[in-house]
Design brief:
The protein is of the alpha/beta class and 252 residues long. The chain folds into two domains: 137 residues, TIM Barrel (Alpha-Beta Barrel); 68 residues, Non-ribosomal Peptide Synthetase Peptidyl Carrier Protein, Chain A. It contains eleven helices and five strands, in the order βααβαβαβαβαααααα. It has a five-stranded parallel sheet with strand order 1-2-3-4-5, covered by helices on one side.
């Protein structure tokens, strides 16, 4: 499949007329999408936002027109571009799009889903075909299995242990290194350590080492130290706290 991201609110993207910037010109958005649909045999989907700002929430028009040119599914982030990641996502408007009798394609909701309970509640309340997880999965990829398990059983999975967290963090580090190379891969990984280790008391000194070391082997050694120091530590059982990321975070 091909997914077109008309939702990115980052200034350097949106102010150039890309990402969520296209919401200011729906005709252009439709022409671009139509061209992509006609150029491939793959199913084309779109991710977007409610509109450019509170005075221009045009998602209902957008949804109908994109469906008309042949997209196979639509994911909607319940904020405008002007909101970035601030305030609460407007799921009522997402639900309105989904329940529009003209809309027959699957509609997925996005925004503020940070727990299994919330994922199931919002799916049922607003009738969407599914939910999309963005920021809440950064440093906490377990949220997907937690949601699937809760939907099937109504029960919570045990929280990941420090061993689980560090093991996934290491895998993430190695994949980042392989994909981006030693310099960029290690540098871009630095933003994630706080999220993987969130909730550990007295982690500041270790975190400082992780964001200053420049060799994978040295970083792995620090992560191993953390496992030893916090072996047996029990993380909170409550749903993970939604982290307020900097406006430049490209994941929405």
């Amino acid at each position: 499949m091909l997914d077109i991201n008309f939702g990115c609110p980052v200034k350097k993207v949106a102010l150039k007329g890309a990402g969520a910037g296209v919401l200011k010109d729906v005709d252009l958005m439709v022409r671009l999408t139509d061209a992509v649909v006609k150029s491939t045999n793959l199913p084309v989907t779109v991710k977007t936002r409610l509109g450019w700002d509170d005075n221009n929430k045009n998602i209902e028009e957008v949804a109908e027109r994109l469906q008309d040119v042949g997209i196979k599914a639509l994911a909607i982030h319940g904020r405008t571009r002007a909101q970035m990641y601030k305030g609460e996502a407007d799921w009522a408007l997402i639900g309105k799009v989904k329940n529009n009798p003209r809309i027959t394609i699957p509609v997925f909701g996005n925004g503020d889903i940070d727990s299994a309970e919330k994922a199931l509640e919002y799916k049922n309340r607003y009738g969407v075909d599914g939910v999309m997880i963005g920021r809440a999965a950064i440093g906490y990829p377990w949220i997907f299995n937690e949601i699937k398990h809760f939907v099937k059983t109504g029960e919570h999975l045990p929280s990941p242990t420090i061993e689980d967290r560090v093991a996934v963090c290491k895998k993430h580090l190695h994949k980042s290194f392989e994909w981006k190379g030693p310099k960029v891969g290690i540098f871009e990984m630095r933003r994630h350590y706080t999220n993987y280790l969130k909730g550990l008391p007295g982690i500041k000194d270790y975190r400082l080492k992780l964001v200053t070391l420049e060799k994978v082997e040295e970083i792995v050694a620090v992560l191993d130290e953390i496992v030893i120091k916090y072996a047996g530590y029990e993380f909170a059982k409550t749903p993970i706290e939604l982290i307020n990321y900097h406006e430049k975070c490209p994941i929405n």
